[in-house]
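Weekly sync, protein design subgroup
Attendees: M.S., D.O., the rotation student, P.L. (late)

Item 1: inverse folding check
M.S. brought a backbone from last month's batch and wanted to see whether the design step gives back something sensible before we order anything. D.O. pointed out we never logged the input encoding, so this time it goes straight into the notes. Structure tokens as presented (210 positions):
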């Protein structure tokens, strides 16, 4: 039995990759529309697609978040969940960008991009995480993830941080792993989050008894 051309596609692909695999078909645009209608492929956004579930080629939503809107990096609750800092699985994928607030409702989930300006602040504390498919995902560091969350939720004061961490059931062992030196470096370099960072450092020092 001859394999369907789509079975050779990666789990996530763009318009031009799709066109290449459909090059023997007449009316490629119409063919793509039919494939979407039949559930063979899912259109995540203009020019970006994933294979239907029956192809059994799972895709990584965190890696997908980097592709939907950028430049961006995965952070906030999504990063904390990945790092094991909170017990709940986060349904929405949260990222930071250097433009403006954007929300994407897609067939595979909801993706939210929170603005972080200026660019000097955005660039701090970004790393790469390798997933099971050996794909590198642009991610916030452990320290940056929690600072981004505090910024998004407008949690500025130490007393409010303790209540908020209880509300999200933050694993306190996660706090013990945070690097105070990195946080102090953020405090020296950042331009618009000094109060959050300095208060979080004070909170963390009290928690660590240092």
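Designed sequence read out in the meeting:
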């Amino acid at each position: 039995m001859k394999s369907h051309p789509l079975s050779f596609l990666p789990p996530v692909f763009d318009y031009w990759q799709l066109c290449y695999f459909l090059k023997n078909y007449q009316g490629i645009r119409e063919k793509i529309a039919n494939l979407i209608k039949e559930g063979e492929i899912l259109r995540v956004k203009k020019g970006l697609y994933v294979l239907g579930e029956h192809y059994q080629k799972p895709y990584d939503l965190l890696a997908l978040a980097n592709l939907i809107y950028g430049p961006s990096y995965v952070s906030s609750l999504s990063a904390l969940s990945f790092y094991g800092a909170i017990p709940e699985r986060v349904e929405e994928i949260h990222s930071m960008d250097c433009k403006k607030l954007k929300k994407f409702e897609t067939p595979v989930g909801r993706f939210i991009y929170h603005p972080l300006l200026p660019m000097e602040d955005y660039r701090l504390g970004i790393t790469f995480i390798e997933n099971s498919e050996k794909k590198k995902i642009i991610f916030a560091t452990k320290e940056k993830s929690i600072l981004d969350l505090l910024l998004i939720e407008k949690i500025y004061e130490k007393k409010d941080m303790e209540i908020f961490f209880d509300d999200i059931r933050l694993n306190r062992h996660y706090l013990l792993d945070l690097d105070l030196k990195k946080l102090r470096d953020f405090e020296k370099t950042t331009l618009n989050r000094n109060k959050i960072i300095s208060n979080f450092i004070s909170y963390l020092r009290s928690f660590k008894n240092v």
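Discussion: DSSP finds ten helices and nine strands in the chain. The chain has a mean pLDDT of 91.
Action: P.L. to compare against the previous round before Friday.
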